[in-house]
Structure formats: C-alpha cells, structure tokens
Amino acid sequence: MADAVATGGFFSKIGALLQSTHLPAQIKDVDFVGLFTNPWFIIPFAALVGYLIWKQSFNELIVIIIFIGIWWLSGTEYMQTLVVDGELQINKVLPVLVGASAVLGFIIYLFFGRS
Q1: 3-state class of 55 per DSSP?
Q2: pLDDT at site 81
Q3: Which of 3, 35, 64, 104 has the fewest CB atoms nearer than 10 Å to its CB?
C-alpha cells in the first residue's frame, strides 16, 4: 500500500515538473522547418549521419531515428492530455508504456541480440 502511494507521488511530481517547465508547450512550438533549414543544425546533423553511414553504424542511425520519432510524438495532442487537472490519465499512459517497452526491447535487441 505504501509503495502505491509512493509511486503515485512520484508520477505526480514528474507531472508537476513537466507542467512547471512548460516542456510540452516548448516541444509543440518547435519550428521544424526552421530547425531543419538552419545551417547551424543541419550541417552537423548531416555530417553525423554521413559519418555513421560511412562507418556503417546502422544501429546508431536507428537509435537517432527513434529519438527523433519520440521527440515528434511528445509534441502531439495525445501526449498533452496525459495529465489533466493534475491527475495522470492511466488509460492513456498504458499504451505509452507498452510502446516505450517495445522500443526499449527493440533497442536492446539491436545492440545485444544480434551478433
């Protein structure tokens, strides 16, 4: 019983942190077109991708693509409604947890499952 209360307090603290830092709004307000046309971002990013292709480090490229996808997903309306009026919506969190565990399992398979 005490673990459930501690876990609920933990998630409410994370939700309060996200709301106080306005992180979801900041991610939603990112100008993707401006970011990917900014030479201060795109040149090092393209150099990193080119280097990883040259070194044939496809696992790292896949991880970068996954992080970009998570970044995009975190700015969607679905993620904005995970916490409503300071309460965590369990019915919306469970699919996120299942997806996150699947992605984590895939990353573990990439690095440790194949030889």
Answers
A1: coil
A2: 84
A3: 3
pLDDT band at 115 (very low <50, low <70, confident <90, very high): low
Q: Residues 33, 69, 9, 89: is their CA dihedral positive or negative? A: positive
How far, in Å, CA of 70 to CA of 112, rounded?
22
Among candidate residues 45, 108, 40, 52, the one with its CA nearest the CA of residue 71: 45
Q: Would you mind telling me the total number of residues written for the chain in this entry?
A: 115
| Closest CA relative to residue 58, chosen from 67, 49, 46 | 49
Tell me how far apart the alpha carbons of residues 80 and 14 are, in angstroms, rounded to a whole number. Answer: 14
pTM, 2 dp: 0.65
